[in-house]
Each structure stands twice: as C-alpha cells, then as structure tokens.
Design goal:
Organism: Alteromonas pelagimontana
Domain NADH:flavin oxidoreductase/NADH oxidase N-terminal: 4-341
CATH superfamily: Aldolase class I
Largest sheet: 8 strands, parallel, barrel
CATH topology: TIM Barrel
CATH class: Alpha Beta
Number of helices: 10
Distance between the termini: 17 Å
InterPro entries: Aldolase_TIM, OxRdtase_FMN_N, YqjM-like
Order of helices and strands: EEEHEHEEEHEHHEHEHEHEHH
Shape: globular
Protein name: NADH:flavin oxidoreductase/NADH oxidase
Cofactor: FMN
Number of strands: 12
C-alpha cells in the first residue's frame, strides 16, 4: 500500500490522497474576472484524481494583481464570474477546491509572461503604481513602489478578509494565503524588501505582523468549515534575506493562531537569488518545518516521479506533495502514479476505458 494515496486531513477537510495541484497563474482573466479559459483549465485539472485543487493566485484588490490579466476576487462581478466556472466544474467533479489569496506588491503591474513579463509603468493603460512595505523596487531598473501607509495596510488587511468571505460564499473549502515568491506578504517578511521603522518593520516580530494579523482576522471572519493555510518561501536564497530559521519561527506562530497547513516553497524575493535547482531541491525546507510543527506540511518543487513522491511521504519528509508545471504537462499524472503504485483514484466513467491493457485499472 502506498503512502501517497492515503487520506490526509487539512483542518476539517479530508483529502482522498496526498497529491495537491499547486496554484498556477493563467493570466487569462478580464479585469479580474474568470473567463471560459478558467472553466476549461480548471475542469481538466478537476478530473485529474488529485486530492485538492488550489486555484491560481487570486488578487484581493486590483492593485494586487501581478498583471492586468490576473484573476481577482474583490467585488460582486469577480465573484459571479468565478462562480460560473466553479459551477460548471463541480457538475462533473467532487474534488475539493482551494484558492490562493494574494497581493503582488512591488511585483505587480507587469506584462503577461508570454509578452515578456516586464513592468508596465503607470502611464500605460494596462499599468498602475505599485505598493510595497518600502519604496524599494524589485529590480534596479524598475520604478519604485509606494511605501504603504498605515491606512493602506489596514485596507489591505480588510481586502484579504473580504476576499476570504467571498471564497466561502463560493463554496471553496480551503484558503491559502500567498506569502511566498516575492509578493506582498513575503515582502513584509524579508528584510531585503522591508525597511520600515514602524510596527510592521525592523524586528522579526514586526515583519511577521501583517501576515499574522491577516491570519487572525480571516480565522475570525470565516466558519470552521474553511481550512486556512499559508504558502511561504522558506528562503530568499540571498545572504541577509529571509531564511529557514526565520521560517521556523513563523511556522510556529502560524500554528499557534490556528493555521492548518503550511505549503513550503522558496525564492522569488530578489533578482540576486542563487538557487541550486535540482529535483526535490526544496524538500529539505519542508522537512525542517515539519519537524517544528504539528500541522500538515506540503512539499513542492520539481517532484516528477511517483515513487519519489511516495517516498517523501513514507519517510516523513512532508505530509503531502504539490505539483504545478508537471501536471500542466501531464494532466493525468495522478492516474499514472496510481497505476505505478498499484492504487486507484476517482475519475469520470467516460474515461474508464483508458486503463492500460493488462494492468489493473488505476481509475474507478
């Protein structure tokens, strides 16, 4: 019996297996609203047999989008659009759905990746003035963001809470706060981006404050039916930046506040990062955090092999694995993993005939 296909509890949410589809931006929204592309894309992933599908980074306000084509959840219009896609997907899939709530901070106002991904200045119709903890750009040649005022920080907290309430109305079962990859909440955590002198900057306690306040307020605003977790970058891969030691302190603080899972990635804060990319290179960070907390920890990053993924769980390195680019390339990765490990996953009856000849069916 494999470990990868055993159930996992994330708060009150029970996953049928330990394979999670990580958030992947599609840059295909219209003024924040989901489109037919999202229905097609999410529908395909919802038939994959994974334990949980987490929707892409979803901006809590227009200024928080990475690009002008990012998905959002900040008003009735964006809520209705996402409801349309989710209703269609749920007609044929019972897979639990989560959403990653995000604000891009200084990494906002960019072109779509396939259009170059470069910063769009505020004088362009598709651009706007970005905001961050401090007036420090991501790259030396980029325009500086505005340093957030205390009043703007309060508004951002409110925007996260309101988006969380909208997510619950949509029937979404899990919320993941995006505090990774150099976006706003990560910017507040890292001393490389946060040089404030008020209660949100300086000490580790102060740099963690925004994320912890958002966690507290969302916990108070949604029901116990909603699972709340956080995605972090465990290191900036830059000397003097955010690192695993600070991540351990943060993880314990999140657990104390009722956070129900931690999704461990790395990097994205600085163009100076030096990343030793290799299969499973981020797993040791997940393991370090798992040893420090008693809530589930999700590992992610170049996990492509089913026996490898099973071993990550079996050896106690993490409680679940997340796939992103790998499942875009192979939407039936979970089916193939089940066949290889002698397991079964739920799939629509229309696909039952796809079982390899002479092998036990990996789908049921």
């Amino acid at each position: 019996m494999s470990h990868l296909f055993q159930p996992l509890n994330l708060g009150n949410l029970t996953l049928s297996n330990r394979i999670i589809i990580a958030p992947m931006c599609q840059y295909s929204a219209e003024d924040g609203a989901a489109t037919d592309w999202h229905t097609i894309h999410l529908g395909r992933l919802a038939l994959s047999g994974a334990g949980l599908l987490i929707l892409e980074a979803t901006a809590v306000n227009p200024r928080g989008r990475i690009s002008y084509a990012d998905l959002g959840l900040w008003d009735d219009r964006t809520e209705r659009a996402l409801a349309t896609s989710l209703t269609a997907v749920r007609k044929y899939s019972s897979m639990p759905v989560g959403i990653q709530l995000a604000h891009a901070g200084r990494k906002a106002s960019t072109q779509k990746p396939w259009d170059g991904g470069k910063v769009i200045t505020p004088d362009n119709p598709h651009g706007w003035q970005t905001i961050a903890p401090s007036a420090l750009p991501y790259g030396d040649e980029e325009p500086a963001p505005d340093a957030a005022t205390p009043e703007q920080i309060t508004e951002i907290i409110t925007d996260f809470v309101e988006a969380a309430k909208r997510a619950e109305r949509l029937g979404i079962e899990a919320i993941e706060l995006h505090a990774a990859h150099g976006y706003l909440l990560h910017q507040f955590l890292s001393p490389l981006a946060n040089q404030r002198s008020d209660q949100y900057g300086g000490s580790l306690e102060n740099r963690m404050r925004l994320l912890l306040e958002i966690t507290d307020k969302i916990k108070a605003a949604v029901s116990d039916n909603i699972t709340l977790g956080v995605r972090i970058s465990a290191t900036d891969w830059v000397t003097g930046g955010w690192d695993v030691e600070q991540s351990l302190v943060l993880a314990k603080a999140l657990e104390e506040r009722g956070c129900q899972f931690i999704h461990v990635s790395t990097a994205g804060l600085s163009p100076l990062q030096q990343i030793p990319v290799a299969p499973g290179f981020q797993i040791p960070f997940a393991t370090a955090i798992k040893q420090a907390v008693n809530i589930p920890v999700i590992a992610v990053g170049l996990i492509t092999d089913a026996p490898e993924a099973d071993n990550i769980i079996a050896s106690g390195q993490a409680d679940a694995v997340a796939l992103a680019r790998g499942i875009l390339y192979n939407p039936h990765w979970v089916w193939h993993a089940a066949a290889e490990l002698g397991e079964q996953v739920t799939a629509p009856p229309q696909y039952l005939r796809s079982s390899p000849h002479g092998m036990p069916s990996p789908i049921k």
